[in-house]
Amino acid sequence: xxxxxxxxxxxxxxxxxxxxxxxxxxxxxxxxxxxxxxxxxxxxxxxxxxxxxxxxxxxxxxxxxxxxxxxxxxxxxxxxxxxxxxxxxxxxxxxxxxxxxxxxxxxxxxxxxxxxxxxxxxxxxxxxxxxxxxxxxxxxxxxxxxxxxxxxxxxxxxxxxxxxxxxxxxxxxxxxxxxxxxxxxxxxxxxxxxxxxxxxxxxxxxxxxxxxxxxxxxxxxxxxxxxxxxxxxxxxxxxxxxxxxxxxxxxxxxxxxxxxxxxxxxxxxxxxxxxxxxxxxxxxxxxxxxxxxxxxxxxxxxxxxxxxxxxxxxxxxxxxxxxxxxxxxxxx
Length: 332
Ligand code: NAD
Ligand code: IPM
Ligand code: MN
Hints:
single chain; Isopropylmalate Dehydrogenase; 10-stranded mixed beta sheet; two-stranded antiparallel sheet; 11 helices; globular; binds nicotinamide-adenine-dinucleotide; binds 3-isopropylmalic acid
């Protein structure tokens, strides 16, 4: 495997080395290609990502990515959005699953759902007119875009509980009627039990009764917001992994950002990135390694080895060291 490794900015520079140490513990045949991207690179060179960087990412089998800082500067083009569009990674897969010994906001931990977020259009179209008096962003829903994310979600649901929730706001935004119709048709055609919910009441239902959901499909910005919100169910933003998937490329990253408030202190939780690495291993077919990694994470958590966001006293690098050591011992 040829793997592009992007640390990015802020805590990306701390969580990625921890995940890479763990990957190295498996001694797999992987060529790692470091790629510098992000706000730091923009400050240094005037560009956050170049055409050559995109070519390098495309030449690799997949990408492990930390986080980047995205300033609200109209002249700054988001690195992540550029990559998602250029590599046409239309599905953003965000599993929400409790981990042993970590409490979220509920006593119950019998839930396990996946947010399938459309990743290339909606309010992230990038079609904007910015003025002093009026600024607009065009929300784009296409049949093709809705169909491919609906297909992805239905395939996933078919391998799970065959239960799909379509989340939209078609009462107000008629563009969502197309999204809803295409998702409904696809679910009906593939024999998936489905229902739909308006995003506002859905947000309430999801946070109060997460055990009622399995696969959730939604548009770009709703998926972004609902996934961070769901972090509260499992114990924090430091625990949410994700995969960006297209027909040709795959890209794995924590859901969280560069966390400037804690960057440089070696206290960021590396588990979101380590769980993203686990998704990468599964995607690549390294099922045994993924299972050992899960065992190692569970073992660390059961021994109280975690960062301060989970109430622990361990540093980012210590958590990485200990999980890597568990894997090396396990493989001896
Ligand atoms: P954030 O996710 O970076 O941080 C939100 C809060 O969660 C902060 O208090 C932070 O300390 C905490 N947090 C996040 N990850 C953590 C971890 N692993 N361990 C412990 N605590 C953690 O969101 P933000 O503050 O809104 O955004 C900061 C920057 O990151 C912005 O420039 C934003 O554009 C960017 N961002 C990037 C990505 C990405 O690269 N994928 C995602 C989201 C935000
Ligand atoms: C995410 C992030 C990105 C998004 C930002 C940084 C562009 O919040 O991956 O969830 O909005 O998709
Ligand atoms: Mn987000």
